[in-house]
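In the design runs reported in the main text, the only information available to the sequence generator was the tokenized backbone. The following block is the verbatim input for one such run; it is reproduced so that readers can re-run the procedure and compare outputs position by position.
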């Protein structure tokens, strides 16, 4: 284990089982649900460029969310690809895929309904003035556990998410965090190491502000690189600690990319102020210090210098 890294720790009652013990997370059995088995309870929960999410009810299994896509060849391929990725196993901190359904002109992936919304929305709620560092540490511990599982999902394969951000961290009613949105993920092989390998035509998409600097180079855009997830995780830590989402400001996308490639990172001033306000609370001060230290190591300019998620 990298001696520089202090593992993220949370109280025993909310710790997850070891994600590398594969026998505890068997491959997922995906079933097809008939369309008439699913009753729409609420309209659109959310939408993006590729899909719309609705809330549905199944009389035997209760509430689910369903990610609806048009029945074009491309969307069929996307659905099959996402199912293949999520079939590798189940983990407490990875959104569970329950099955799929098909309508006349659309298809859908059935997933667990997360009543707590997404982490970004929680962090930006103005009526919640204080989120303790211990809870922020718990969120990032859950995220790290989920990423660790994805990167070590099976003996010879790993999933690289490629779009980790607070919007893709969903919360249940008990504030357990799960990683969602695998539309840009890729399945690689662990035998080729952290640097990854080109895997043909991969449908990658990134949110630039969370994207690792090496992915801005054209040559590396199709690399299955687990260290890029580690960088994105660091930016998520900063957003969680400061409750401020990263933004371009007055920079163009190209200017932002160049600055990141040169080593610019989110400012640490807000974290310093947070620590100053916690000087009389040793435990919470140490929680912030722990996250800040891991964050700085995870956003290193050199992919090979970033820790493996097993060590976080």
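Verbatim output:
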């Amino acid at each position: 284990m990298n001696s520089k890294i202090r593992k993220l720790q949370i109280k025993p009652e909310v710790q997850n089982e070891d994600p590398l013990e594969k026998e505890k997370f068997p491959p997922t059995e995906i079933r097809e649900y008939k369309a008439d088995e699913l009753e729409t309870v609420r309209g659109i929960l959310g939408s993006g460029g590729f899909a719309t999410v609705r809330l549905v009810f199944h009389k035997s299994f209760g509430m689910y969310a369903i990610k609806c896509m048009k029945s074009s060849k491309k969307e069929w391929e996307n659905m099959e690809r996402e199912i293949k990725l999520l079939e590798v196993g189940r983990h407490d901190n990875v959104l569970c895929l329950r099955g799929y359904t098909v309508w006349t002109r659309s298809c859908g992936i059935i997933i667990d309904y997360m009543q707590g919304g997404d982490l970004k929305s929680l962090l930006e709620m103005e009526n919640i003035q204080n989120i303790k560092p211990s809870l922020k540490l718990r969120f990032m511990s859950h995220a790290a556990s989920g990423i660790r599982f994805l990167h070590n999902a099976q003996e010879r394969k790993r999933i690289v998410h490629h779009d980790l951000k607070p919007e893709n961290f969903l919360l249940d009613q008990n504030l357990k965090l799960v990683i969602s949105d695998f539309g840009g993920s890729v399945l690689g092989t662990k035998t080729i190491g952290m640097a990854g390998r080109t895997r043909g035509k991969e449908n990658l998409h990134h949110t630039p502000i969370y994207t690792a600097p090496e992915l801005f180079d054209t040559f590396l855009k199709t690399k299955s690189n687990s260290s890029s997830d580690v960088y994105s995780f660091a930016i998520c830590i900063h957003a969680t600690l400061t409750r401020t989402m990263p933004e371009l400001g007055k920079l163009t996308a190209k200017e932002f990319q160049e600055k990141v490639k040169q080593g610019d990172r989110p400012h640490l001033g807000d974290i310093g102020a947070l620590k100053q306000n916690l000087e009389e609370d040793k435990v919470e001060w140490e929680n912030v210090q722990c996250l800040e230290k891991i964050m700085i190591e995870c956003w290193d300019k050199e992919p090979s210098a970033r820790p493996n998620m097993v060590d976080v």
